[in-house]
């Protein structure tokens, strides 16, 4: 057994069973969070790609018994982890909670099923619990944007993140349905999906945004889901850019949550969730994370942080869980650059035996 300290958190290592916890100031409990509706999509049927429909490719075929569950930011401010369960089947999935919510999570369900979402804080205490039925038909909704409404000091090199409650028809994501405006001028840029499920759209401006300027992100009801249903409501999000371009920045990779660790043959598989934070401890979305392992490899080895800076990955290395002479070490760095990432912060050290 050994104790490690990384980014201000104490890490307890016992073989490949790893616990991470942060230090918390004692004080009066925060007021209860406002109750907000969990968003559960109707069951989704995904179609195969059709040539010539759009420059944004469709995701692979999926079953008609997949629903997407999401929690808007701010719903459970002290939450750390969510357990999502289909009460009919008993199947569960877990998701890290950042900024009081989580982006759409896919799970098997049919119309009429009941979905339970339980959010716990770092101590395992339930801080939010809600039930929701799977409807046979429900329009897609906007879960969040980044930047959010009235956000200030937005970096000049920012890309715009738009998260919907379920997969979106690529043919409906156009320069007419998603626009970034500076006054009456429409900003040029590229629209693409950031995830294989096609719930998240990324708009990357063709040039740096103007400093100290107010922009409007306009999303119309021309956005449709895979069944052709329009977005529940049109949305306009206003934000203001920073006064100067901060340029290249490095961020901290904070201690991570271990989702699970198990042996598969002669290899150890560790599923983990890292978080990228800035100097104030706030989660950073859109940061480039690069992993480096002393043994084995991480999939994906380079990725982009999401809601509140969280991102999941899988680390596989040869060996067996337990005490032994060998050890596998994993480090990671994060930046806002796709080409630079100069410093690594150790986040995990797992003792392993030899096969």
Topology:
Blueprint lengths: L1 E5 L2 E6 L2 E5 L17 E2 L25 E6 L9 E6 L5 E5 L5 E7 L5 E7 L5 E8 L8 E5 L4 E4 L5 E5 L13 E5 L2 E2 L2 E5 L6 E6 L8 E6 L15 E7 L8 E15 L2 E11 L10 E6 L3 E3 L2 E3 L5 E9 L1 E16 L9 E9 L2
Describe this structure in words.
With 355 residues, the protein is an all-beta fold. It folds into 3 domains: 2-24 and 249-353, Sandwich (Immunoglobulin-like); 43-133, Immunoglobulin-like, CATH 2.60.40; 154-241, Sandwich (Immunoglobulin-like), CATH 2.60.40. 0% of the residues lie in helices and 49% in strands. It has no helices and 27 strands. The chain has strands spanning 2-6, 9-14, 17-21, 39-40, 66-71, 81-86, 92-96, 102-108, 114-120, 126-133, 142-146, 151-154, 160-164, 178-182, 185-186, 189-193, 200-205, 214-219, 235-241, 250-264, 267-277, 288-293, 297-299, 302-304, 310-318, 320-335, 345-353. The radius of gyration is 21 Å and the shape is globular. Mean pLDDT is 80; it is low at 1-35 and 47-63.
């Amino acid at each position: 057994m050994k104790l490690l300290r990384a980014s201000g958190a104490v890490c307890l290592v016992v073989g490949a069973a790893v616990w991470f916890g942060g230090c918390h100031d004692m004080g009066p409990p925060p007021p209860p969070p406002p109750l907000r509706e969990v968003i559960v999509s109707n069951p989704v049927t995904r179609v195969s790609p059709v040539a010539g429909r759009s420059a944004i490719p469709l995701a692979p075929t999926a079953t008609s018994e997949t629903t997407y569950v999401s929690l808007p930011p701010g719903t459970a401010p002290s939450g750390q982890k969510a357990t999502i369960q289909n009460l009919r089947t008993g199947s569960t999935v877990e998701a890290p909670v950042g900024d009081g919510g989580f982006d759409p999570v896919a799970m098997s369900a049919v119309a009429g099923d009941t979905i339970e979402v339980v959010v716990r804080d770092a101590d395992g205490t339930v801080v939010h619990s809600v039930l929701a039925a799977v409807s046979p038909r429900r329009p897609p909704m906007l879960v969040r944007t980044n930047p959010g409404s009235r956000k200030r000091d937005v970096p000049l090199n920012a890309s715009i993140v738009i998260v919907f409650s379920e997969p979106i028809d690529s043919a409906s994501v156009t320069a007419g349905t998603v626009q970034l405006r500076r006054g009456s001028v429409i900003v040029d840029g590229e629209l693409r999906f950031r995830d294989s499920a096609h719930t998240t759209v990324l708009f990357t401006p063709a040039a740096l945004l103007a400093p100290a300027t107010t922009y409007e992100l306009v999303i119309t009801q021309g956005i449709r889901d895979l069944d052709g249903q329009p977005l529940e409501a049109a949305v306009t999000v206003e934000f203001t850019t920073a006064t100067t371009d901060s340029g290249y920045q490095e961020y901290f990779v904070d201690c991570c949550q271990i989702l699970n660790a198990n042996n598969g043959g002669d290899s150890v598989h560790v599923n983990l969730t890292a978080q990228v934070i800035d100097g104030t401890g706030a989660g950073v979305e859109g940061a480039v994370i690069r992993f480096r392992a002393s043994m084995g490899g991480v999939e994906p080895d380079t990725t982009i942080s999401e809601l509140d800076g969280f991102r999941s990955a899988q680390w596989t290395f040869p060996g067996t869980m337990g005490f032994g002479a060998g050890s596998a070490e994993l480090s990671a760095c994060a930046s806002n650059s796709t080409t630079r990432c100069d410093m690594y912060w150790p986040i995990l050290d797992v003792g392993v035996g030899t096969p």
